Amino acid sequence: MNARIRRLSAPLLGTCLLLAGAAAAQDTIKIGVITDKVGPAKPYAEPITRGVELGAKEINAKGGVLGRKIELLIEDDQAKPDVSATMARKLVDAGAVFILSVSLTPATQQQQSVTLETKTPQMTPSNSGDTLTTKVDNPYFWQTGPLGSTQIATLMSYTRTRNFKRVALITDNSDLGQLLGRFFRSGLEKSGIEVVAEEVVPRGATSAVPQLQKIRAANPEAMFMAGVLTPENVLMLKAYRELGMKQPILSSYNLSVPQYLTVAKGLLEGVTFVDAFDPDKPEAKRYVDTYRAEFKSDPNNLWMSAYGYDGIQLVADAIRRAGSTDKEKIRAAMQATKGFGGVLGARGTSYTFPDGKRTGFDPNGMVVRVFKNDQHGPVVHTGTK
Q1: Residue 328 scores a pLDDT above 50
Q2: CB proximity list for 165: less than 8 A, separation 6 or greater
């Protein structure tokens, strides 16, 4: 090869390599993830995002989807609704064919303005707000996190087995905490159980002793915790122990967040809580082995991370059945999901989107568990029946 040919071939070779690199980048299937790395949702958004990453890694190790690798595009919305919508727009512009939201419910709600407009499939694998699929008629949005109403129905089913007649209710003043508080009260009243005291611990409080003193004075048979803010929930538990209270505590699934095993260590013994994780479910047992093999030093986060793992697996399954990355075909395939056996949910339950419905968690898939030795303990009740 003479010098002139070498001079010509060098830039041609460089151009070919650049084109090959661009083609390889385009050959991935881009899935957007909106998470919260610094805001109030971080305690659960962080492990859920880790579950998404674990699921994507596993899918790619098995050859990807439709012969292509999954590429996760992860954005932080700080749990702020306006920022969240901006991140959704950024992901759509970057070529995401699907968006997973693991931020706060209001932030996920705001993202829908973008996904509806751009007809981009979107799902939250963890949010529990009942209005997420009803407030906006968005056929491109689905929810596989257990509904707040399902959590309450499960806890009420367990409560009926305990024959409580007079109980207290405590929550925080966050929007979601207030919403859950209303669900709790409604469920209790429908069950014929009297709420003899109802208290609120405001965001930023330094003690919950005044609220717990009022509850103690009302002498309830049990106390229901509907708070969702971690610091305030810890204050409630501390005050309960400091005042020597003995009434059983029944809580929402927020106490399943792994962070409580550290920040509330020594305060959780005997507390019951609603959870979506049944450690005796075969799929859950396999996931425990998978997670521990990947994250040997962080076993506690596996409970929460399963939301993200199931979420990315559901997305991959829909794309496979769609046989395409066309957004409309993915939308149709996701809506047609039936009997998908995920990690979460009680034994024998699966994810299904009934015709005309976009909430996929089995109504009888929640369990009630009890803390033992500062760990998420055994299941003591299953379902709403």
Answers
A1: yes
A2: 193, 194, 221
The yes-or-no answer to whether 30-146+282-353 and 149-275+368-382 have a common fold is yes
pLDDT tens track for 271-320? 999 999 999 999 999 999 999 899 876 656 777 899 999 999 999 999 99
Superfamily covering domain 149-275+368-382: Response regulator (3.40.50.2300)
Distance, CA of 225 to CA of 194 (rounded, Å)? 15
Interior angle at CA 363, CA 362 and CA 366, nearest 5 = 85
Domain with residues 30-146+282-353, CATH architecture: 3-Layer(aba) Sandwich (3.40)
pLDDT in tens, 7-50: 545 555 555 444 444 444 459 999 999 999 999 888 889 999 99
Res 21: pLDDT: 46
Tell me which residue has tokens 């993202």. Answer: 111
- Could you state, in order of their start, the residue ranges of all structural domains in the chain? 30-146+282-353, 149-275+368-382
Which pTM value belongs to this model? 0.83
**Are residues 194 and 203 in contact, defined by beta-carbon separation less than 8 angstroms?**
no
